[in-house]
Amino acid sequence: MSEETFDVIVIGGGPVGENAADRAVKGGLSAALVEQERFGGECSYWACIPSKALLRPGNALAAARRLPGVPVGGALDPVKVFERRDAFTSKGDDSGQVEWARGAGIETIRGRARITGEREITVDGGRVLRARHAVVVCTGSVPKTPPIPGLDEVPTWGSRDATAGSTVPGRLAVVGGGVVGVEMAQAWARFGAQVDLIITGPRPLPRYPDFAGDAVAEGLRADGVRVHANSGLERASEVDGAARLELTGGQVLTADEVLVATGRRPATDDLGLEVVGLAPGKPLTVDDSGLVSEVDGEWLYAAGDVTGRALLTHQGKYAARVVGDVIAARAAGKPVDTRPWGKHSSTADHYAVPQVVFTDPEVAAVGLTEPEPGAPHRVVDIDIAVAGSSLHADGYAGKARMIVDTEREVLVGVTFVGQDVAELLHSATVAVAGEVPVGRLWHAVPSFPTISEVWLRLLEEYGL
């Protein structure tokens, strides 16, 4: 067997792994990036990028229809939308990502990697790689499949199928009301599919404030989606090539495809973790420098979904940048600053995680979405009703929430719901991560007439 040595070996060539390897190389180390599927990972080919490419045309058409004098008619052309999506995903060709990595000084290796010893990786059972300083696991996550009787016998989509499909099903059932479920339900409904969304609770997006889930449900219904709330899929069977779905309460649906969107779990099943005393299939517990707990020697790190901390591409890339910098600093014998908000600490994972749900209306949130029990938190809820929103769309409807720590007088959470609120989110993220006092925020004057004037109204409602 051949053996090669690098300073750092990164398992998983998605955006998170790319960032970890890139920061290590920029810190003066050599790095190998090992990927078993496509360099660029889930986000580039099956998740963030294609899903937003599918959603954007429908959102733009709906926005145009809310303005008088704009000549809008007809419906979306799914074929054109699919062509544009394919342009963003390069139809699965990852040669551009490989070229970028090599240009950044990263050695790319295609194959399945397993940990076979301390600082040792074996690729496809034969190629042995050894790391002088660190191994970083960035293998992401995989979909969860619920144990529903008969589900494995009917035509189903996973999230990859939903973002990669090029034929509009006549009838699509979506199981799960999280981000993937609501985004894909709306996208495919706007392409002309009859969509049924099956959720167990009273509204979708249960991790967000009730007003967010209610607004998204209303938006879905406006696009013809039938929302089956307080329900669930009890049993599935195949009848004449279609799926027969028995819901909680006795209702029966028939679908040509069933999208199973019931969450994701860390992809750690076949990494050889048992070699270092860790349990396969479980998240890798890390500290804020990305160092894996319960493994001696300060050599095994992880970042992204695989840690179970914040299953978002941008948050994984953030953690990966920290990991790469930490490894480079420790290799050079330089100080490592792991204090909260220090250069080598992914502190934002705990306090300032931003996320956008790209439905119509959009949901954008950072930090807390609900006050913590017993904490000195005050919630301010208002409608988004300013000159900028009125000009943005006729009948604009939106809401904003601000959660303030009244002892420190700083924001700990902000949520926006409404058309095009995603672009409001970074200002909220800066305020939360920067712990900007609300008294100082009062002096951050929003431009007129923009939707950002909602900040002024929030602060006025708070009493400033």
Automatic annotation (TrEMBL):
Residues 353-455 form the Pyridine nucleotide-disulphide oxidoreductase dimerisation domain. Keywords: FAD, Flavoprotein, NAD, Oxidoreductase. It comes from the Bacteria. Its cofactor is FAD. It is an enzyme of class 1 (oxidoreductase). InterPro entries: Class-I_Pyr_Nuc-Dis_Oxidored, FAD/NAD-bd_sf, FAD/NAD-binding_dom, FAD/NAD-linked_Rdtase_dimer_sf, Pyr_nuc-diS_OxRdtase, Pyr_nucl-diS_OxRdtase_dimer. Its EC number is 1.8.1.4. Pfam families: Pyr_redox_2, Pyr_redox_dim. GO terms for molecular function: dihydrolipoyl dehydrogenase (NADH) activity. Residues 6-313 form the FAD/NAD(P)-binding domain. Coiled coil: none annotated. Belongs to the class-I pyridine nucleotide-disulfide oxidoreductase family. This is Dihydrolipoamide dehydrogenase.
